[in-house]
Every structure is written in structure tokens, then in C-alpha cells.
Task: inverse folding
């Protein structure tokens, strides 16, 4: 119960890694609020976890739109009090052609995958600074270091997430606010499964290069996140935790 008395806010918490983080944080004693654009899935998950006795709260929220996100954030604070931990998990893939991609598509993608980290910081940092306490965990990706053809400009956004992690760690450390990133490798999420469905041969190719002979479960990513949110990680700041089963160590 390493997160007792904490209020953890998770973006993109209705599915995949985000849902696993919501569950693990709640299992560790936190009050957990989460937002998502998948309203039906979010409400269903909130009901499921509440019936199991966990303190969770869902509110529709678009991380790309600050005003919309603030409505969700304010409702969460009204429910559970000041946010002490933030997990920036919401994100989308991009498989754009650099010539065909439109300006609007570019802006929407970066608003979700990168700008949203700034949005949550604007919302959560004032109270964290007052309390002289807080933890932020940004979900990046191994794509920040190495990428894959036809993923433009996904790697740029995830590299930016790690850059913002460094900035926040250096600027807010004096306030006892720690900021870290987690970079998952292949993780069995609905997003990954949908990609495999469009390119079936890639599943076997992806499995063949896994040093542990398997891909990650979402719960394995979540456990690293909740560690970084907790006081067990009290001197971990500005780090990027690669959780990919050793994939980054493999020679191409």
C-alpha cells in the first residue's frame, strides 16, 4: 500500500497501459482519477473498480484541449483533493507520410502526444509547489531512441516527452517534485493488437526479436510507474526507465 493518502491522476486511463496503471495505483492505496475520450469504457471501468472497493473516479477529458482537460481536472480535485501524482499516459500512434500529412493532422498529433504533458503540468504543479511534494511520470516509448519505418513523426513526439521530463525534473526538483519517464517496448495493448491485425506478419517478426521470448503485459509497465510515483523512488528524478525486456540492448 505504498500510495496510501495519494491522489493519482492518470490520462488515457480507460484502456491498455493506462487502465493497468489505474488498477495498480488503486491496489496500492491511492485515490485514482482518470480521464479518457473513450467515455463508455471509462465509465464501465470506474464502475467495475468501485464495486471492488477501490477509490476511483472517471471524467471525460481531452488532453489536447487545455480548457476541456481543466474541467475534468477540477472535477477530480473536487472529488479527491489536490493531485499528488500525475501519469501522462494518453497518446496515439502516427503512421503519416511526411508529404501527405496535413498541418491539422500534425498539430492534433503533437497536441495529444507531447503538448498534453505541459497541460497536466500547468494544472497540477501549483498545488504540488505549495505542498512541496509531487511526482510526475510521463509514458514515453523506446521509439524515442530507435524507431520503425512508417511511424512518422511518432519518434519525435516521444523524444520530446523525454525532453520535457528533463526540464520538469530540473525546474521542479527544488520543490521536491520528481519527474520521470517510462519507455515501454512491445506491450500487449489494444493499440498494439490493432496494429498487428493490419500487419499480421509483424507479430511473428516482433516476437522473434524479444530477448525474453515474449512481450510485456500492461501490468508489468504499471508496476514500474507506481514505483516511480511512490516514496520508494524518493531519489529518482529526471530518469527514463526503459521497460522493454532488453530489446534496446539488441544489435539490429
Result:
Amino acid at each position: 500500500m505504498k500510495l496510501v493518502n495519494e491522489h493519482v491522476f492518470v490520462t488515457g486511463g480507460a484502456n491498455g497501459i493506462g487502465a493497468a496503471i489505474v488498477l495498480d495505483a488503486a491496489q496500492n492505496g491511492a485515490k485514482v482519477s482518470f480521464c479518457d475520450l473513450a467515455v463508455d469504457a471509462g465509465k464501465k471501468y470506474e464502475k467495475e473498480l468501485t464495486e471492488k472497493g477501490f477509490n476511483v473516479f472517471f471524467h471525460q477529458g481531452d488532453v489536447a484541449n487545455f480548457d476541456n482537460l481543466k474541467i475534468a481536472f477540477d472535477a477530480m480535485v473536487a472529488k479527491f483533493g489536490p493531485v499528488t501524482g500525475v501519469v501522462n499516459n494518453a497518446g496515439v500512434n502516427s503512421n503519416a507520410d511526411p508529404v501527405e500529412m496535413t498541418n491539422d493532422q500534425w498539430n492534433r498529433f503533437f497536441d495529444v502526444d507531447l503538448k498534453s504533458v505541459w497541460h497536466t503540468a500547468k494544472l497540477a504543479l501549483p498545488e504540488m509547489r505549495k505542498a512541496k511534494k509531487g511526482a510526475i511520470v510521463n509514458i514515453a516509448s523506446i521509439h524515442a531512441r530507435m524507431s520503425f519505418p512508417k511511424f512518422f513523426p511518432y519518434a519525435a513526439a516521444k523524444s520530446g516527452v523525454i525532453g520535457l521530463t528533463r526540464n520538469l525534473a530540473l525546474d521542479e526538483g527544488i520543490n521536491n517534485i520528481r519527474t520521470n519517464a517510462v519507455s515501454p517496448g512491445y506491450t500487449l495493448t489494444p493499440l498494439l493488437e490493432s496494429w498487428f491485425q493490419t500487419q499480421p506478419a509483424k507479430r511473428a517478426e516482433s516476437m522473434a526479436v524479444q530477448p525474453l521470448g515474449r512481450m510485456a503485459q500492461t501490468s508489468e509497465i504499471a508496476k514500474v510507474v507506481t514505483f516511480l510515483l511512490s516514496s520508494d523512488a524518493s531519489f529518482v528524478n529526471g530518469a527514463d526507465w526503459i521497460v522493454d525486456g532488453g530489446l534496446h540492448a539488441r544489435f539490429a
